[in-house]
Structure formats: C-alpha cells, structure tokens
Request: fold
Amino acid sequence: MAEQERRDNILLEVRGLKKYFPIQRGLLRRTVGYVRAVDDVSLYVREGETLGLVGESGCGKTTTGRCIIRLYEPTAGQIHFKTTALSPNGDPQMVDLLSLDKERMKTVRREMAMIFQDPINSLNPRMTVFDIIAEPMEIHGMGRGPEVEETVVRLLEHVGLRPEHMLRYPHEFSGGQRQRIGIARALALNPRLVICDEPVSALDVSIQAQTLNLLLDLQKDFGLSYIFIAHDLSVVQHVSDRVAVMYVGKVVEVADVEHLYSRPLHPYTEALLSAVPKPDPLYKSERILMQGDVADPANPPSGCYFHPRCRYAQPICEREAPEFRELEPDHWVACHRAGELHLKGV
Amino acid sequence: MSEPLVEVKNLKVRFDVREGIIKAVDGATFTVHYGQTLGVIGESGCGKSVTARAILNMVPKPGKVVGGEILYHRRRPSENGSEVTEIVNILDLDPDGEEIRQIRGGEIAMIFQEPMSSLTPVYTAGAHITEAVTLHRLLPIRKVGDQMAETIQAHRRVSKQEAKEIAIEMLRRVGIPNPRERVDAYPHQLSGGQRQRVMIAIALSCQPDMLIADEPTTALDVSIEAQILDLMRELQEETNMAIMFITHNLGVVAEMAQEIVVMYLGNIVERASVVDIFYNPKHPYTRALLESIPRFGKGRRQRLTSIKGMVPDPFHLPSGCLFHPRCPHFMPGKCDRIEPKWTQVGDNHWVRCLLYEKE
Ligand SMILES: Nc1ncnc2c1ncn2[C@@H]1O[C@H](COP(=O)(O)OP(=O)(O)OP(=O)(O)O)[C@@H](O)[C@H]1O
Ligand SMILES: Nc1ncnc2c1ncn2[C@@H]1O[C@H](COP(=O)(O)OP(=O)(O)OP(=O)(O)O)[C@@H](O)[C@H]1O
Ligand SMILES: [Mg+2]
Ligand SMILES: [Mg+2]
Reply:
C-alpha cells in the first residue's frame, strides 16, 4: 500500500502515549513514585479495521483504552482522531483529542464508544436496562420518545436479549447477559471507533460466536473500527486485521495478524502463543514457561523490560532498551535479537 | 474413582420474579470427588453459578432452593486424633449460622465470576471483611493485604504476622509483581486481572478441601492463566483438593477437568469423561458448543457457527426436551412431547436425549 493511502485511511493515531499513576504514601500523601501503566505507546487504527490488543494482565491495555476516549487524562502523548462531528457538513477532519476543550470533546466523544471490561462501572444497578441503553442517546440529545424505544428494542435484539426484558434491572441477568447490555449501550450512538475491552470473555461460546458475528457484521455495515482487547488469542486472531502485543506499558510487537501468529518476532509473543489452552484434552502442551516474576510497572527492569524472563536474553538486553523498529513491512518489533531468532508461531 | 466430597442430588432452585417463576436449576445431579476436577460448561444463564452458590447455601435473593440435597462428606479430626467423615446436607444448615460460615471460605472456597460481584451491594466502612471477602468483594477502603490476612486468620490458626506472610507468598504465586509492596495497595489501584488474582489468592490460601472456581481466569491473559491453572493443580496434588471448575473456555476445561457436565437451561444434559466430551460428544447441544469456538487457523473473519435461535424465555419453557426448538436433530412428535431420561451411552457416559433412548 502506498504511504499516502496508508495515511489517508487512518482513523486513530496514538503517539507516545503515557499514563503514570502517582504512588502516594503517608499522612501527607506524598508522591513516592509512579506506576507507569502506559509508557510510550504508539499505534494506529485504519478505518474499518480491527486492531487486536493483547498482553499480560496489568500491562496497560485498559488504561490505554481509557486514555484514548479521555476517561483518563494522559500524562503525555498525542491522540489524533479523524472526526466528522466537528464540521457542519460532516467533513472528516484530523484533530488531536488532547487539545480539545470540554464541549468539543463531548461532541467528538459521540463517535467513540467503549465496551467495558468490568460491567460494575458501566451498568448502574438502579437503572433499568432500557434507561441504561437510552442514556447515551439522551445525553447527546439524539432521538425522542418512540424513536429511542425503537432503537433500544433493535439493539437488544441485535445482541440477543429479549426486548420484553428492558424494564428489568441488571442484577436480574446472568453475567453473560449483563455483558451484552453493555455492548448494546456502546452501540447506541452509532460510533465509528469502538474500544472493546474483553467484550466476549464473560460470554459462553455460543453467545460469543453470535457476538463476534455481530461485531463483524456491524463493522461491515457501518464501517466501524475496533480496538479489540482480549486475552483469548484464538478470538483475537478471528476478528483482527492487525495485532499489537503489549508488555509492561509498552507495545513490543505489532503486525498483520497472519504474520504475528505464524512468525512472531518477539520472544514474549512466542511465549504467549505457546500458552493458549487448546480445546483438546489429549493435546500435550508445549508451553514456554516464563521464569521469574512479572515485571512491576512501578519499578521496571533495566534495558528491555522482558529480559529477566526471556530465554534468549543476552547482556545487551539488560543494558539497553531495544528500539521499536519496522523489521519487515508493517511488522514492528522492539527486541535486540529480532530477526536472528527463529521463533515458533501457531 | 476417589471418594466423593460433595454429592448434589436433584437440586432445584427457583427465582420468583414479577413475571413469574424462573427454574434456574431444575434437577441437577452430580458428584465432586476428592482430588478430582469436575468441569461445568453450558450456555450463559443455564444455572452454573446458581448451582455453585447453592453448594455454599447462598443462593442470591429472590432465589430459593425448592428441592434436592447437597451432601457434603465433611472430614474432621475425631477425638482420638484420626479423621472421621460425617455427612452433612448443606441445605439443612442455617444459611447465616456458625457452621456454614466455617465451611464457606475455609473448607469450601469459591472464586466468583467477576460480573457476579456486581450483584452484591457495595459494602460500607463498617462491613465485616471476612464476610465480604467470602462473598467476593474487596472493600474499597481497606488495603488488600489486610483484607487477605484477616480472611486467612478466620480460617487458619496463624498469627497476624504469619497470615500476612501467607498472603504475600500467595500473591507471588498468582503472579502479582512485587507482592511485598502490593499488599499495601487499595483495590482500585489494581487492574481487573490483578483484583481477580487477589481473590484467587485468598481462596487458595485458606487451604480448602474443595474449590469452586466460577470463571476464575476470564479476566487473565493466557500466560498468567496458565500459571494459575498450574498452581491449582499443584495444590490439588499437595492437599487432595477437589475442584469444581465452571468456564466458557473449552480450552481451559479440556486441560483441567477429568469429568465434565454440560448444562442447558437448568438441566444437566450430558455427563462424561473429558475425553469422551471432546472426542465423542453425544448430545446435539454439546456438539453445537464444540463447533462454535474459533480455533487457530480456522477461517479468519468467517462466520462462526452459533446455535440457532435464542435461549427460550424462562417463563415459557418448551415442552418435551428443552433443547428441541434449536436442535438440528429435532424429531417432530417425539422431542416436543417426551421429556428425555438419562441414558447410558458408554462407560461413565450419560446423556439425556431421545436419539439414544431405546423404545
Ligand atoms: N487508578 C489507578 N491507580 C493506580 N494504578 C493503577 C490505576 N489503574 C490501573 N493501575 C495500574 O496500572 C497498570 C495497568 O492497568 P490496566 O488496568 O490498564 O491493565 P490491563 O492491561 O487492562 O490489565 P487486565 O488484563 O488485568 O485488565 C496496573 O499495574 C495497575 O495496577
Ligand atoms: N438475582 C436473580 N434474580 C432473578 N433471576 C436470577 C438471579 N440470579 C440469576 N437469575 C437467573 O437464574 C438463571 C441462572 O443464572 P446463573 O447466574 O446461574 O447463570 P450462569 O450459567 O452462571 O450464566 P453465565 O455463564 O452467564 O454466568 C438465569 O436465567 C438468571 O436470569
Ligand atoms: Mg483491563
Ligand atoms: Mg455464571
């Protein structure tokens, strides 16, 4: 793809994103250090594509997502988003979200939605399902009375819930059903970018299949773009065009899904792929055991953050942080030894 | 097979709600054995969590156990120092009584499904920690380590300092970085997966005889998940702990379980060894489940097979076999009329489906 075309298609581009949480101690709550939850993340999402985001629990995936929609104020970085909401005739326009004032951010925010990992945060226990799904429409003054009801009914049907249940409260649903309420709510405003934070991990395999089919259909019909955060690598492979792998606040590898899975370039990606449980009781796992402790984002190791657990580590890995480089076209990796190692994919 | 630990017999749980009655569990029968792992799979809302909570005699309101028994083969030290097994029907115990409190968390520990925790109301400052933690809730205003230590002390005879050391060691074993510092964190300072691991650490640090793990690893990445599955198996070998493992992840259950029960709409429809379930599934529902998972290398972005139709409205359950409206092998005049009975189709392999019933 020509460089220009590549640029034209970009919906979201994140550059050098950082989010540090202060660690406070003592009565005076003095800041004694920082959790570097997101530490220099750069990534982009093209229009209509899905970027998978995987990595260890606690590596900063949710924080990255929350920074992008500005639920968290980033410590540093730029977030460019192609919005059509700011110009009266709907022309697309690239804006840096971090430079927008509150009012304009609210307008742009309509085009971005997040399906939350943790339904506690998104589902108000005192609101009925109808109110939960209609709320974003009301906040943004979209639609009235019967129109809203029609939309809610349609959304519920879309996500496989019974419209007649819309006057119930969240606690009356099972875990998986509640997750689908969250999905319906995220779709209410016809967003262009949806950040899906573990959208199907609480779902059973059949509803998961329906939901993945639904997300793929919506993408086709409305040209949606997704950032798809999940730990189930077979699900990520199924839905993603490209996949980014994070480790302790940093992106360590990004590539086209086929390349990443068949020929990973980062030892951490290789270890992740080897750990996927196979739906086969007779399969003998060839899991790569990562030695050592999980890195602490408040106090990361020197050099390459992964070196204490990497079975290919060399002295340089402890000394120097590897550069994030494009080793093959559109295949980026941060590893001193990338290219010389022959890593195993699936 | 080793000794039974919990026998669930014909368990029935109902929810009386505005629109009518939900038969959340309608006649579940299975046994969990010492040292073994039983996997429980099935569609969302089929009654897995409610069954699990019934074992701890804590069905959420307005749910009610309306039938069946849960026989707990409780091992206790006798006067002369040896162990005796007494059989208790957990459903006969006072749900707020002293005995069930000892069992909960201490002898039978549960790791709750994360979304489930949103059911319990938010606790306030005065709430009792061990109670809250047993119900899978970390208090927002107390340090993680304190909550862990108090829970451990409630179930094991150890000093405060020892409890804290156990807590730190267990946090390390579930892969929390820098556990000595992190014990002083407050719950909101941890990621979703870290909070879940704290709950796992608590459940395991009380050295239970049985662990009920309800979707324990859904919030975790595969490498941490693998680490935790290994840890559970290690502890199982050390202490002969039984595990009831509820999950939607067929890869995980294939790795963990020796035996599997498949649930549909409050009923168990198939019961077999893990190998039979994966290599020789009999019930059309089990087969459909196995077909609906994305597998490595299987056509990317292609539509996945999902079971046709929706889970039926619980207030208008189908007649005959509950699965018949969605079943590819539906036999008119039969499946919609006759309720299937348990049929043995192999060694320790049972199924409830009219395809296998002899006239
Ligand atoms: N509000 C906060 N205050 C302090 N630290 C935080 C806060 N939120 C997150 N963190 C820390 O930031 C890091 C990244 O957290 P985040 O929730 O982004 O992880 P994640 O990749 O989404 O993990 P998971 O897969 O478990 O959901 C973790 O180490 C976490 O403890
Ligand atoms: N508090 C409640 N009030 C009313 N109905 C409830 C309540 N809790 C559960 N139910 C109903 O009981 C049935 C079984 O729910 P349960 O939580 O056991 O499902 P599950 O199999 O664990 O599902 P999931 O896989 O989604 O967690 C569901 O139909 C649900 O709607
Ligand atoms: Mg997260
Ligand atoms: Mg459940």
